[in-house]
């Protein structure tokens, strides 16, 4: 297994639409292993392959708390086949936009069809954090970021900060020091 570098905005690769996976071969299995290592190390609760520069429709998740055993989940070629009318709001973060957290409104529940890591077709109905995370990661494989769901004013401010920091070769400081995630897993 190898940890890979996570792309940070404004990297243009994050705007690509990822291609479906055909056969789950050795390169896909290595990608999945590397994504878990990268996600756990970050640390994060989800990761899309494009965040490590691979434009394939592969997602890893682990929503287990720190005091619980690991619960890795893999979604290959995921597709939302149903979304609830009911919405929920969650303060989201993104490993490609480090240190920024904003409330995003999305469908409260979704049904997602996908292939598991053995290539078997599966369907899952998700609500709560799993629904939020799945939608966030499926957005990634379609070139969409959570900041696309917030106001243009806030989005432009965040992108500007990251562009400026990239030019200077510096890390980006949070817009406000008290913008911490309200969900504390573990
Ligand atoms: O896709 C990503 O960038 C990963 C992202 C997933 C996500 C988080 C919150 C809402 C929707 C999607 C993250 O994992 S950000 C880091 C994070 O939320 C976290 C990290 C450690 C412990 C608990 C949360
Ligand atoms: Zn993200």
Describe this structure in words.
By secondary structure, the chain is of the alpha+beta class. It has 3 helices and 7 strands, in the order αβββββββαα. It has a 5-stranded antiparallel beta sheet with strand order 1-2-3-6-7. A two-stranded antiparallel ribbon has the order 4-5. Strand 6 (109-115) and strand 7 (121-127) form a beta hairpin. The longest helix has 17 residues, at 152-168. The model is unreliable at 182-186 (pLDDT under 50).
Strand and helix layout:
Elements: H1 26-41, E1 46-48, E2 58-61, E3 73-83, E4 87-92, E5 102-107, E6 109-115, E7 121-127, H2 128-141, H3 152-168
Antiparallel strand pairs: 1-2, 2-3, 3-6, 4-5, 6-7
Essential attributes:
186 residues, alpha+beta, five-stranded antiparallel sheet, two-stranded antiparallel ribbon, 3 helices, disordered C terminus, binds ligand K1U, binds zinc ion
In helices, the fraction of residues equals: 25-40%
Q: Compute the number of helices.
A: 3
Calculate the mean pLDDT score and round it.
93
Strand count, sense and barrel status of the largest sheet are: 5 strands, antiparallel
Shape: globular
Q: Could you give the order of strands across the largest sheet?
A: 1-2-3-6-7
Radius of gyration in whole Å, from Cα? 16 Å
Can you list the ligands bound to this structure?
A: ligand K1U, zinc ion
| Strand residue percentage | 15-25%
The arrangement of helices and strands along the chain is HEEEEEEEHH
Structural class: alpha+beta
Secondary structure tally: strands:
7
List the uncertain runs.
182-186
| First-last Cα distance | 25 Å
